[in-house]
C-alpha cells in the first residue's frame, strides 16, 4: 500500500502533470521535420462540423448547444453582458489538454490532432481555435508561448517557431475580429525551470526566463493583447533548509522590474497581472494569495505597475473563498482579471473545473460590479474538461455552462443591488460610526484619551445582532 504522503504528493502533481503529458506523449516531432512527422496543415473543412453557432435561447430552452442565461447584447446595470465578462478561451486547456493524469495516459483524441507537436500541427490547432471562438461567440483568447508553438533546441529556434504561429494567429484574428485577453510565458514545464525561473538558484536559468518573457511580451504586444500574466509557475520552494527565501524574492522583484521597463520600452500598454496560487507545483508558492502578493508588490515599490489575476480554484486552495480574494484585490485597487474556474470541495488540488455553482458566481459578480467591471481584463476560462469527458461537443458544453453560470451570477447580483436590502443591512451594521465620534475615528483624529473619556460618558455599549442569517436569506432570494 502506498503511504498517505506519497499519494498526496502524486495528487498534488495532477494539475501540472496534465501539462507535462502534453510534451511527454504524444512524442514531439522536431520542428524542422514538420512536414514529415505528421500530416500537413491541410485540414479540409470545419473542425467542429455539426456544432452550430451558439445562440441565446432563454431559460426554457432544452438545447444543450444554446445559452439559457448569457445574452451577449442584453444590458444589465447599464452595460452589455459581453462587456461585463469579456469571456476568453484558454488555449492550453481547450487545445492542449489531453486528459492525462499521474495514473493514466491521454484520454482525449481530437480528430484534428495528428499525435505530433509539429509546426504544422500548431498551425492547424490555431485554425481550430478561431473556429471554436466563432462558434462559441467569444471575442477573446489567452495563451502561453509554448502552448501555441513547439519549443526549440535553442532560444532562436523556439522564437522562430513562435513567430511563424503568431503570424498565422495575427491573420486569423483580423479575419475573425478576435483579440488576445492575455499572453504569458510557460516557465514551468522545461526541466531547466525545475528550481523556478526568476527565483531559480541558477543565474543562467534566470537569464533564460528573462529572454523567454521578453519574447512572450513582444508577441502579446504584436497580437494586440490587452494584458500580460505572470503566474508563478515554480517560483516557490520545496524546503527552506536549502532555500535563501530573501534572495529569491529579491530576484523575483528585480525580474518584474525589468519586465516593467521592457513593457515601456516596446510601448506595450497592456496591464501586467500577477496570478496568485498557494501551492502546486511547489509546496509553497511565493505569490500565495492576493494579500501576500499585494504585500510583495508594496515592499518592492511595484504596486502601481501590476494588478492581480485572481483564479477561483487558487483562492480556495489558499484557504479563502474566491469572493474573499476578489474583495482583497478590489479594496487594494488590484482587481484586474479573473481566471474563471472552481475546485472540488472534496479534493485539495487545482482541478480547474468549469464553475457551475450559481451562489459562488453571484458572489463573484457582486465584487466585479463593485469594481465597475474588469476591463481591460476579463473572464478567462482557465478550466478543463474532466478526464472522462472525451467528446468534441463537451468542449462547447463546458464553456456554455461556464458562461451561463456567470450570466446567472450577474443577473442575481444585479437583482441584489437593485433591491438594496443587503446594502442597507451592511449600512445599518456600521451606523454607530456615522456620528461625530465615528467620523473622528475614521479621520484618524480620535486619540486614546478621547476614547477613554467617551467610555466614561457612554458606559457599556449596546452591541447589536450581526443579522447573518437574514443576510443569507436576502442573498438566497436572488438566486
Ligand atoms: C496554473 C495557472 C496557469 C496560469 C497561466 O495553475 O492557472 O494556467 O493561469 O500560466
Ligand atoms: Ni489553475
Ligand atoms: Ni490560471
From TrEMBL:
It comes from Acacia crassicarpa (northern wattle). The keyword Signal applies. InterPro entries: Xyl_isomerase-like_sf, Xylose_isom_bac, Xylose_isomerase. Residues 1-24 form the signal peptide. This is Xylose isomerase. GO terms for molecular function: metal ion binding; xylose isomerase activity. NCBIfam families: PRK05474.1, xylose_isom_A. Belongs to the xylose isomerase family. Its EC number is 5.3.1.5. It comes from the Eukaryota. GO terms for biological process: D-xylose metabolic process. Keywords: Carbohydrate metabolism, Isomerase, Metal-binding, Signal, Xylose metabolism. It catalyses: alpha-D-xylose = alpha-D-xylulofuranose.
Amino acid at each position: 500500500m502506498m503511504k498517505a504522503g506519497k499519494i498526496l504528493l502524486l495528487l498534488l502533481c495532477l494539475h501540472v502533470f496534465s501539462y507535462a503529458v502534453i510534451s511527454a506523449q504524444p512524442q514531439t516531432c522536431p520542428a524542422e521535420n514538420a512536414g514529415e512527422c505528421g500530416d500537413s496543415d491541410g485540414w479540409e473543412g470545419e473542425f467542429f462540423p455539426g456544432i452550430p453557432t451558439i445562440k441565446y435561447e432563454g431559460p426554457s430552452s432544452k438545447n444543450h448547444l444554446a445559452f439559457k442565461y448569457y445574452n451577449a447584447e442584453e444590458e444589465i446595470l447599464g452595460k452589455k453582458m459581453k462587456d461585463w465578462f469579456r469571456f476568453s478561451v484558454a488555449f492550453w486547456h481547450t487545445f492542449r489538454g489531453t486528459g492525462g493524469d499521474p495514473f493514466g495516459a491521454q484520454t482525449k483524441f481530437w480528430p484534428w490532432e495528428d499525435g505530433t507537436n509539429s509546426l504544422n500541427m500548431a498551425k492547424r490547432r490555431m485554425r481550430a481555435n478561431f473556429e471554436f471562438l466563432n462558434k462559441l461567440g467569444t471575442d477573446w483568447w489567452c495563451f502561453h508561448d509554448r502552448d501555441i508553438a513547439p519549443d526549440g533546441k535553442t532560444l532562436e529556434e523556439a522564437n522562430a517557431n513562435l513567430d511563424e504561429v503568431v503570424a498565422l494567429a495575427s491573420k486569423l484574428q483580423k479575419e475573425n475580429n478576435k483579440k488576445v485577453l492575455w499572453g504569458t510565458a510557460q516557465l514551468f514545464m522545461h526541466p531547466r525551470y525545475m528550481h523556478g525561473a526568476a527565483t531559480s538558484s541558477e543565474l543562467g536559468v534566470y537569464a533564460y526566463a528573462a529572454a523567454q518573457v521578453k519574447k512572450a511580451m513582444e508577441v502579446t504586444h504584436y497580437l494586440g493583447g490587452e494584458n500580460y500574466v505572470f503566474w508563478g509557475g515554480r517560483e516557490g520552494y520545496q524546503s527552506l533548509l536549502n532555500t535563501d527565501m530573501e534572495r529569491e524574492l529579491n530576484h523575483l522583484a528585480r525580474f518584474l522590474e525589468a519586465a516593467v521597463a521592457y513593457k515601456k520600452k516596446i510601448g506595450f500598454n497592456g496591464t501586467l497581472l500577477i496570478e496568485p496560487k498557494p501551492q502546486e507545483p511547489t509546496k509553497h508558492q511565493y505569490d500565495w494569495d492576493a494579500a501576500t502578493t499585494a504585500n510583495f508588490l508594496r515592499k518592492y515599490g511595484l504596486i502601481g505597475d501590476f494588478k492581480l489575476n485572481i483564479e477561483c480554484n487558487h483562492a480556495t486552495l489558499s484557504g479563502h473563498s474566491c469572493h474573499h480574494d476578489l474583495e482583497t484585490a478590489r479594496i487594494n485597487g488590484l482587481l484586474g482579471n479573473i481566471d474563471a474556474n472552481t475546485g472540488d470541495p472534496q479534493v485539495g488540488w487545482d482541478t480547474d473545473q468549469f464553475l457551475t455553482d450559481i451562489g459562488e458566481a453571484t458572489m463573484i459578480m457582486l465584487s466585479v460590479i463593485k469594481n465597475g467591471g474588469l476591463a481591460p481584463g476579463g473572464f478567462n476560462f482557465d478550466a478543463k474538461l474532466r478526464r472522462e469527458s472525451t467528446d468534441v461537443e463537451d468542449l462547447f458544453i463546458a464553456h456554455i455552462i461556464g458562461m451561463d453560470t456567470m450570466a446567472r451570477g450577474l443577473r442575481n447580483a444585479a437583482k441584489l443591488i437593485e433591491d438594496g436590502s443587503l446594502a442597507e443591512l451592511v449600512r445599518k451594521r456600521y451606523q454607530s460610526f456615522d456620528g461625530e465620534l465615528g467620523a473622528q475615528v475614521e479621520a484618524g483624529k480620535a486619540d486614546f484619551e478621547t476614547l477613554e473619556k467617551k467610555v466614561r460618558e457612554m458606559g457599556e455599549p449596546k452591541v447589536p445582532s450581526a443579522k447573518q442569517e437574514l443576510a443569507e436569506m436576502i442573498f438566497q432570494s436572488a438566486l
